[in-house]
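New to this. Please check both lines:
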Amino acid sequence: MESFRQLVLFCVFIVTILSQNAVRCATLDDTAKLHTDLFTNYSIKRLPVLNHTDTLNVNISVRLLNIITLDAVTGVFELNFAVGMEWTDYRLAWNSSSYGELTSYHLQPSYVWHPKLFLLTTAEDLETISGSDFIVHLQSTGQMMWLTGKLMKSSCKVDMTHFPTDTQTCTFIITPWGFTPSEVYLSHSSNTVDLQYFSPNGEWDIISTSVEQNTFYEPVISSVEIDITLRRKSTYYMVSLVLPIIIIVIISAAVFMIPISLSSRTSYAIKMCLSFALYNGLISKSIPQVSEPMAGISYFLMMSLIASSLLLLTTIFTVRFNLMESLDEIPKWILVLIRRLKKCCFKSKELNKVDKVTAIEDIEDKYDSESLNREPETEELTLPEVKTFMDMFLFVLSNVIGFIIFIFYFGVYIKL
């Protein structure tokens, strides 16, 4: 019996609590009454400050949604930003118990005073970035919260020196245009851009972001500076631009391995040079056409094209060289050069064959000072040997020059 009585009391208690909550629930009449009481004498032309000497603090938070494009030629950075703003309007505070415990209210921004923010670094007309389509959230304490956004085009200084592994930093400056810092002060709630809702871009990776006060315009207006550092995704450009150039340069040097009797050495060199020039013209359309500073890959293309042209001239020289029928027709400086290179790079087997058992004293007795210091010009050369050595030397030299160009480009202009 006692337990049944306790159960009945518990049910009565629950019903009472629920009834009180039902009574405290705000109705449409409460909302309409609140709207009437708040905006009867409200003016959006006045700053929401109690005294004219007071400063209204507007706190912003920046959210990056997605990157549209970064045009290196025009220097325009296009992206979607969301900017959250918070400020307090003492005129819009109310006692929630008088309006059915209503603690928050949503309304169009046209009903209240709201900060109009402008992008100073815009690449278009100077327009407000806060649109009227975004709802303002009003708390009973008078605190206003407004999340707005817009597709923005900002000017950005682009440095293409290290293209396609370049890193770019673009700066955005946001300000409540028309108000001095003593009237409306713009502050930020975070030192970085919120990337929680960011959609990855196919060409750029975000390296870092920063949000800080901009003091350059401080005497006139209050502003916040937003820096976004981007790194280009270089895989596509390395595979489609740089790698084919390296391949063309390498296979062009193989022209000296073609037998001169086939009469195709010159045509091969011409085809390689023309194909390189044609490819150079095609990929130039994919390279940003910026003069200052010019992309490092432009220098790489220019040096590779010069090397290919010199290779063509050298091929023509070897054809004429192979048509010579005696050593007397070959210039003496070429013969001297070949003898010296042969001595340095391809020493004769007689000088290299040394008996492991022979003592050092026996070697000195066997080769006198004159034989060790003999002039390379005394070595006899044959015409086929000279021609073969010349082809091998030019083949190695072409690859060395190409290797030097690659090392220079990757060492100076490629940032890994």
Notes: The chain has two domains: 28-232, 236-332+382-413. The domain at 236-332+382-413 is CATH 1.20.58.390 (Methane Monooxygenase Hydroxylase; Chain G, domain 1). Confidence is low (pLDDT under 50) at residues 17-23, 348-361, 369-378. The chain has ten helices and ten strands.
